[in-house]
């Protein structure tokens, strides 16, 4: 379990209230809130712990609590007494889900239901991380939040079913759909490309799947804002802009200053157990309604490379 006390808490121990200053120089009481994060050891979870500055945050990994165990989840929520629960825990191995349907639904759907029921029982607000895989990938324009769900993979079906169940249990919950997530500290597309480029003169990357990359620190900051703004309903959050995996790989190699040649290919040359969406760009309209801006994906990639290799000169 990871716990970080806030500046406001430490001031209270000194007999002072946490204080902030407004644009005119006046001060006002800065109230922190309790936040419990399930899935705090993943790429996004680690970023959430780094980015969540002003509140009392408890981060929980799978070793701390198994979201498949309803009693464990309820006990955890009763002990941590959060204002907000962020559910970032999931079985995200898309191909693994295809061959292990029971596990996919147990973690991604029933696990989410367990957390939602605990949130409802304890009066906590809930933010659930979902995915572009809830759509069929056949659109040619960015998906709006009310577009019909039509998942094609087991992973997508487990997350889509979770969305439906959560909205029944906690109607005012916030569902954040995102896509093409990358960040330091674990496996992700840029990390894979960079490692391949170290040993190969050429890399073949599919050019017939289009989406929007999402850097975990940017996603984490958006989630913090959504919680502070009492967000409800479905919100789409990715970095601005869109590209194919081939275009993403070309930009990774270019920004890293590598000589590896990236060649376009098609999905039928890389047959995978789970179908991938051909098009999964998510509309930014829902997050913009909350006043949330996201950097362009090429800028986000530049930030990632700086974090991955501290001190590196990234153009």
Task: Characterize this entry briefly.
With 315 residues, the protein is an alpha/beta fold. The protein has helices at residues 7-13, 43-51, 70-80, 94-99, 101-122, 154-169, 189-199, 216-228, 245-256, 285-288, 297-308, and strands spanning 2-4, 19-21, 27-29, 34-38, 56-60, 84-87, 125-131, 174-178, 181-182, 202-206, 210-211, 214-215, 233-236, 243-244, 261-265. 39% of the residues lie in helices and 18% in strands.
Which percent bin holds the helix content? 25-40%
**Beta fraction:** 15-25%
**How confident is the prediction overall: mean pLDDT?**
91
Shape: globular
* Rg measurement, Å: 20 Å
Quick one: biggest sheet?
7 strands, mixed
Provide a count of the helices: 11
Beta-strand segment tally: 15
**Structural class label:** alpha/beta
Write the CATH homologous superfamily of the domain at 2-19 and 29-181 and 214-240 and 280-296.
Answer: NAD(P)-binding Rossmann-like Domain
* Corresponding CATH architecture of the domain at 2-19 and 29-181 and 214-240 and 280-296: 3-Layer(aba) Sandwich
- Side by side, the strands of the main sheet go 1-5-4-6-7-8-13
Secondary-structure element string: EHEEEHEHEHHEHEEHEEEHEEHEHH
CATH level-3 fold name of the domain at 2-19 and 29-181 and 214-240 and 280-296: Rossmann fold
Q: Which residues sit in consecutive blocks of at least 5 with pLDDT less than 50? A: 5-29
* Termini gap: 38 Å
């Amino acid at each position: 379990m990871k716990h970080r006390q806030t500046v406001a808490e430490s001031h209270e121990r000194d007999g002072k209230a946490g204080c902030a200053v407004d644009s005119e120089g006046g001060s006002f009481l800065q109230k922190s809130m309790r936040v419990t994060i399930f899935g705090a050891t993943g790429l996004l979870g680690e970023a959430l712990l780094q980015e969540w500055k002003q509140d009392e945050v408890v981060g929980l990994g799978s070793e701390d609590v198994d979201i498949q165990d309803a009693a464990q989840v309820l006990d955890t929520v009763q002990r941590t007494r959060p204002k907000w629960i962020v559910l970032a825990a999931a079985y995200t191995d898309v191909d693994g889900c295809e061959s292990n349907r029971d596990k996919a639904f147990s973690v991604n759907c029933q696990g989410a239901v367990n957390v939602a029921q605990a949130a409802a029982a304890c009066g906590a607000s809930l933010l659930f991380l979902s995915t572009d895989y809830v759509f069929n990938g056949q659109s040619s324009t960015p998906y709006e939040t009310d577009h019909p769900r039509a998942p094609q993979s087991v992973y997508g079906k487990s997350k889509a079913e979770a969305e439906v169940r959560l909205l029944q249990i906690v109607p005012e919950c916030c569902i954040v759909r995102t896509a093409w997530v990358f960040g330091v500290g674990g496996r992700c597309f840029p990390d894979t490309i960079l490692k391949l480029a170290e040993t190969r003169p050429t890399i073949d990357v599919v050019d017939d799947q289009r989406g929007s990359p999402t850097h975990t620190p940017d996603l984490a900051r958006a989630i913090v804002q959504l919680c502070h703004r009492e967000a409800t309903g479905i919100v789409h959050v990715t970095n601005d802009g869109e590209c194919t995996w081939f275009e993403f790989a070309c930009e990774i190699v270019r920004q890293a200053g590598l000589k590896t040649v990236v060649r376009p290919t098609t999905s039928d040359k890389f047959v995978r157990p789970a179908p991938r969406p051909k098009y999964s760009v998510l509309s930014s309209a829902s997050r913009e309604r909350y006043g949330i801006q996201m950097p362009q994906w090429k800028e986000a990639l530049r930030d990632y490379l700086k974090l991955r290799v501290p001190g590196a000169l990234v153009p």
